[in-house]
Amino acid sequence: MPEPSSAHKIHGGVQAPPQADWVPFEWEEPKLGKQVHGEVTIARTFGSTGSLSSGFWRTGATSPGAQADGSHKLTYSAPLGDETACVIDGTAVLTVVSTGKKYKVGPGSIISSPKGLEVYWEIDAPFFKKYWAIWNGTDATPNPPTDLQINHVSDDPGEWIEYHFTEPKEGPQVAGELYFIKSGGSSGTYLSGVWRSGKGIAATNLDDKGALSTPYTGVLGDETILLLEGEVEVTETETGKKHNFRAGDAIGLTSGMHITWISKGPFSKKLWVITRDTLPEA
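Now predict its structure.
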């Protein structure tokens, strides 16, 4: 758990950081022991509650555990917590070991992996890269998910929901629209989905160029983001410090930290995960 002085932080990361920022991905697989596969770079190192992290993972011909042609086979059971991932480059076939069910994924695929679900990854040559966000809370939820769920960043559900929320200081707000991918996970509060804003989309403060500006304190929990489209400016209210992000970047917002979020026009879109170390209200 971070010290209070460091808890309120804007996290950020890019898909192509310097080579020195990539390290071998090592973890303990319950049935197989220590594993080292691919390389990882970290964008978010903690949240205000629970165990929360995000970043990018990649493999290719020179990556640990990969074949000479860049293909890669590994077993992964998400032992560190529920994982929401988005494929950046490459293709793979994922097989749920317990059922034999197979899923083909490629660029734009959103992969929701429950903690403890053993999945066999067959990654095609010559390379593969994904964004990931991993969450583990203290209290287990009843009836947690038991299968992979595959969505896509280009999904267009029949009904997007206007995002209405209430800020403690500013009151009721409308900021863009969204749909849910997951409304629960293995522990605590775990929500995920896709959000968008821009011209013609509802917002309390939207200019004629499609730029949206809204106060935000993450009242539902920490928010971990992959920016899918557009450019965003996040300003810390307390310090005035500005953070600028563009499509492809990872962003981490802290629950309880007051910011101003500006999505620059004409449109923006994000994959979001919201987490909190308390179970949802019944």
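The chain is about 0% helix and 55% strand.
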